[in-house]
Amino acid sequence: MNKKLIKDIKELSRGYDSVIIDKDEDGEFILIKGFKLPPGYNRNKIDVLLYPPKDYPLSPPGLEHSLFVPKDLRYKGAKIEDFHPKSASNWAWLCFQRIRWNPNKDNLITFFEMVRANLTFIEAASIPQIKKIGSHGCLSTIVMALIGFMGLLILVALVA
User: Fold this and answer.
1) Residue 43: which domain range?
2) Which of 7, 35, 107, 126 has the fewest Cβ atoms within 10 angstroms?
3) pLDDT greater than 90 at residue 52
4) CA nearest 80: which of 109, 44, 118?
5) How many domains is the chain built from?
6) Rounded distance between C-alpha atoms, residue 126 and residue 5, angstroms
C-alpha cells in the first residue's frame, strides 16, 4: 500500500469501530467495522470490505468487483439492486462501474460517504444523478457536491 492510502486509512479509522488492513488470495483489503447504515436496512451497522486499486488515488476505489457488504443485507425486507452475492462467502459485491473522482481532492472518507449516500437514496431512482449504466445495471455517480460537503463535515468533526 502506498503512503497516500495509508494516510487516508488512518484518517478514515477515526470514524469507525475499527479499520483493519489485511490480505487474502484476492489481494490487500481494508475491512471497516461499524459502517453506519441509513434507516430502512435490516441492520444499523455493517462491516464493509474494500480492495483498493493498486494505483490509489489515481484510480478511484470501489470499481468493478472491489466493494463488498454482507450478503444478507436487506433494505425494507428486499435484496438491494446492484447487489451480487459472492459464492461460498458471507459477502456480496456492491456494483459501481464509474465514480466521479478527483485524485487531488477525494479520499477514502469521500468515497465511503458516497457509498452511504448511495445506500441512503436507494429508492431515489428518479434523481438524475443516480443513473443505471451498462447491461449489469450498476450504479454510477451520486451528487459529489453533497458528498464533498459531507466529507468536509466529517473531517472537521474528526479534527475538532
Assistant:
1) 3-159
2) 126
3) yes
4) 118
5) 1
6) 34
